[in-house]
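Repro:
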Amino acid sequence: MNVRRSAAVLAATVVIGAAAPAVAASPSPSPSLPSGLYGSGDPTYDGVWRQSYALIALHRVHDRLPAEAVDWLAGQQCANGAFPAFRANPAKACDAKLMVDTNSTAAAVQALSAAGGHDSAVTKAVTWLKSVQNKDGGWGFAPGGASDANSTSVVIGALLTQDLSVPEVRKGTKSPYDALLKLSLPCADGGAFAYQPDKKGKLSANADATAAAVVAVLGTGPLTAKAGADRKSSCADATDLTPTRAAANGASYLAGSVAKDGYLKSALPGAEDQPDYGNTADAVVALAAQGGPEAARGPLTWLERNSAKWAEQSGPAAYAQLILAAEASGADPSDFGGTDLVKRLAATGPKQVAASQDDSSGTSVWWVVGAGLAAGAGIGFLISGRNKRKRP
């Protein structure tokens, strides 16, 4: 899973010190931003996404969900059930000019499900998601757009929160798993997943798409992803490819990709390959879900040693991705390489949340986020930089 690319969020996908602007976390959102919103960066492309995953993370650690934050998220929904990346004026009805998308909607479904008390909103959102399912069983970022691995995976996460059987959510004869399996490459190409076919129909291995798809075909998502059994992640081609086999193949690709350096690399046009912190965090979740804590040990250790500055520059979504990686692999997000990710993330949100860190009960706030998403007309993915580019 991992995230929208705006001027504020682009820094999350590149190396520290690169040309893209970085926004440091601040104690509380800027006065010019909506009350209750996490982060001080421009929410235009990622407001609903980062808000959703902040709430998901709080739920994961059984901490209270700030009413102000939940209300802000619920207020972003349009009458048809869909969510945009950000709705600047919730009092104004959504119109055709406001772009809604599957990724924001699916993330909000998961967050509001965790919050509770929003059954009607969640039902409307899931109904909308089903209404824009593609004929191949998957979803694209925008309604009607070609299916991609990341969008299909985040929607699967939303369906799972409603106890829906993913194989039975069909468009004609095709399920979401059918769409993902079509994007699985043979072992000769590493066993990875592609983001989506190129214009000629060719599939290219994509690490971010692979991390998202592995988690989805294992039948989990941000609300539930955790270390699985000690399953082998070797690659094996199969005439009748199953989700279980595809997950093992994809995890094998990820394991090979991080084996040498301990991290995944980004490939931005005109720039040297650099460590991709967000996608590495996503890979940790996928490796742990497939093969258990030991399978994710290498990249997790690398993140513990190297991600602090990246997270500080990039803000709440970055902290959330790291917390999700720690949670899924059995590490302690309150002492992640010497950094208390929980307090750092809490400091970017509503004041009452940050204050809860000093609560006499001693209860800590553990948050989780991952994600990454792509916009069809030039809007790239958020934190994880889920581009269509080939990754190592």
